[in-house]
Write a structure and sequence with these properties.
This protein has 648 residues and is an all-alpha fold. It is built from 32 helices and no strands. Helix 18 packs antiparallel against helix 20. The two termini are 67 Å apart.
């Protein structure tokens, strides 16, 4: 209890003590605590003139500055010692010294000091809490618990009281009681307006550590499970996914985590601060996306779509990135079985992104999408060519290294992992003696690439030979060569040019491969999408087809211009075309003619075109001729608007 002497002097000292602490906190010197010592010495000198009790109070005030702002337990203990010598009955100084001894890891001494303070004042809550902390650190859990119970009886507002008790219950192997304390700690920090945000977060860190220990045993303790924070368990399981020993274990953990996040009770009141809800949303998005990837690996496309969509809906930070990832990964999965649908999916996703969205997603992930779109078009065109007998007779080189993602392949082809290096290099070398076609050079490059990965002794030489063959094929504007060099740089097997990053260079090469494929090989796929869209009424597919055709047309694909003219007629139906549609149709036909291509479609379409041309006004015809005269193709190094990442 505070006696009359201290009560009389404390008021006079309050201003000086506050001044001391403010000077310590606001000091602009390199050594803040040196300023505190100077200010403290002046305060102590003033207090000394008042009484020994006042001087003791000043020493204790300086000690607390050392213990708090300066984090110097040794200096704090020294000042508390001086205060106690001056006033042996000063129980608050003894309680402060106890706290300093705990920081100095002198736990047994701390217990003695706190006990002495409590003998002087059994209601000294600081001493009681500090002794409980010391007992806990010494693993004397029953004694610690007894002190915490006494604190509860005193109704002292210790902010992290529940968290401390939870640790003690863990030490006593009482997980259910620990879980109850954790639940109470969370409830108190959410429901009380007295905690600042920083205080909430500090307690949150302590509680999270305790929860991790509890979560490990919740499956065997139903009562613990009922008390745990759903998102704490979900976060724990999410972290465990990366350590899963098998895909089956990963799926089990993912399913369990999704179950836990479904137990959430959404609230945006003070009981669920915005920062907490935001964290929970991102955790939920991460878990749902992780399960989507696992589902896709198992071939469950619908399940993956569902979870990716749910993840994007929950995330505020990564919604666009998750939507793009879903489109890219599902395209990569589907392109072999359904290249048209895969291409449409990715283009639709790309059209929904702004430049800022693409910048936030990042060049590496956008490039992965570009590569997926290229592969879908390449697979489709190669199959169409083979089915239509529009290819060369296969050589032994083609049989050994026909590549599935090569639009000019002459066999169905395989992915690169299934290509045999020795057979490919040998057979393609022989084939090249008779015919130096870029396809054969490209396929031999695949053999060298496989050799570089299989044999470290031949790695450097094989990579040089691979790059020489790829560059030769690229000089002939062979799309698959640009794609393969991009993929090789992407995985770190080949370096980018000096001054360029691997991600940026791979993106440039993927764009080049895509554009070369759009220029040569995309019209059939796009026409198919348009036909399907007309039958099904799928506006998304029609939009994707038009986007592909428009960019192919910009690049100089004459057939794309004709296909766009056809689509204008088909959208118009039986009605006469308006002025804008007429001018656009005539312009596409004029550009196609400039590129050396005339419509070669069915008689019905030709008669419709002739009717439009006959009905066109001189002004419309002149405008189309002028537009076609000034038209120039886009370079194949330029990305489509909907895949471009503009700077600034």
């Amino acid at each position: 209890m505070m006696d009359g002497r201290r009560m009389r002097t404390l008021g006079a000292l309050t201003a000086a003590i506050i001044g001391l602490q403010l000077q310590a906190a606001a000091a602009q010197s390199d050594d803040m605590c040196a300023e505190a010592r100077k200010a403290g010495a002046a305060t102590i000198a003033k207090a000394k003139k008042v009484s020994a009790v006042a001087e003791a109070t000043a020493h204790a005030a300086l000690a607390r500055v050392h213990l708090g702002s300066c984090e110097n337990a040794k200096a704090a203990i020294a000042e508390f010692d001086k205060a106690i010598v001056l006033d042996p009955s000063y129980d608050t100084a003894r309680a402060g010294r106890c706290s300093a001894l705990i920081v100095a890891d002198r736990l047994e001494d701390a217990v003695i000091e706190c006990t002495q303070a409590l003998k002087m004042n059994p209601l000294n809550s600081e001493a009681l809490e500090a002794r409980a902390d010391a007992y806990g650190a010494l693993a004397k859990f029953p004694l610690a618990l007894a002190d915490y119970e006494q604190l509860a009886a005193l109704k002292v507002g210790v902010s992290d009281y529940n968290a401390k008790r939870a640790k003690i219950f863990l030490g006593l192997n009482r997980p259910v009681d620990a879980a109850r304390e954790v639940a109470e700690a969370r409830q108190r920090t959410r429901s009380s307006s007295s905690y600042r945000r920083e205080g909430r977060k500090r307690i949150e860190v302590d509680v999270n550590e305790i929860e991790e220990a509890l979560i490990a045993s919740y499956r065997s303790e139903p009562q613990v499970a009922a008390l745990l924070e759903p998102f704490a368990v979900a976060e724990f399981l999410n972290k465990s996914l990366a350590k899963a020993a098998s895909s089956q274990e990963a799926m089990r953990l993912a399913n369990e985590a999704v179950t836990w996040i479904s137990l959430e009770k959404p609230s945006r009141s003070t009981a669920s601060p915005i920062w907490r809800q935001s964290r929970n949303d991102e955790t939920a998005a991460s878990i749902l996306a992780a399960r989507a990837r696992l589902l896709l690996r198992e071939g469950d496309v619908q399940g993956a779509e569902r979870d990716f969509a749910a993840a994007a809906a929950r995330s505020k930070q990564n919604a666009h990135a998750l939507t793009w990832e879903a489109a890219t990964e599902i395209t990569l999965f589907q392109r072999r079985q359904a290249p048209e649908a895969a291409a449409a999916r990715l283009v639709i996703a790309a059209l929904g992104l702004s430049n800022e969205n693409r910048k936030s997603i990042g060049i590496k992930q956008i490039a992965r999408g570009v590569a997926a779109l290229y592969g879908s078009i390449a697979i489709h065109h190669g199959r169409a060519s083979i089915a239509g007998s529009g290819t060369d007779a296969p050589t032994e080189c083609d049989k050994a290294a026909g590549y599935l993602l090569d639009p000019y392949r002459v066999v169905e082809g395989a992915l690169i992992a299934n290509i045999d290096a020795g057979r490919t290099i040998s057979s393609c070398g022989e084939a090249l003696k008779d015919n130096a076609k870029p396809r054969l050079r490209f396929q031999r490059a695949l053999g060298y690439r496989q050799q570089a990965q299989a044999d470290q002794n031949l790695r450097a030489r094989s990579l040089l030979l691979m790059q020489a063959d790829l560059q030769a094929a690229m000089s002939a504007k062979y799309p698959a060569a640009s794609f393969m060099l991009a993929a090789t740089v992407d995985i770190g097997l080949a370096p980018p040019p000096k001054g360029s990053s691997a991600d940026a260079y791979a993106y440039e090469l993927y764009v080049l491969a895509l554009n070369q494929t759009l220029l040569c090989c995309s019209s059939t796929l796009a026409r198919g999408l348009l036909a399907e869209a007309r039958q099904s009424g799928d506006a998304g597919r029609e939009k994707a087809a038009v986007a592909l055709l428009e960019w192919a047309a910009h690049l100089g694909n004459a057939d794309a211009h004709i296909a766009l003219a056809e689509s204008i007629l088909q959208r118009g139906g039986q009605k006469p075309l308006d002025d804008e549609a007429t001018r656009s149709l005539l312009t596409h036909l004029a550009i196609a003619k400039k590129l050396g291509r005339a419509p070669d479609t069915d008689a019905n379409f030709r008669s419709q075109l002739e009717a439009v041309q006959a009905a066109a006004t001189p002004a419309q015809s002149a405008a189309a001729a002028k537009a076609a005269g000034s038209w120039t193709s886009k370079p194949t190094s330029t990305a489509p608007d909907w895949l471009r990442i503009a700077s600034g």
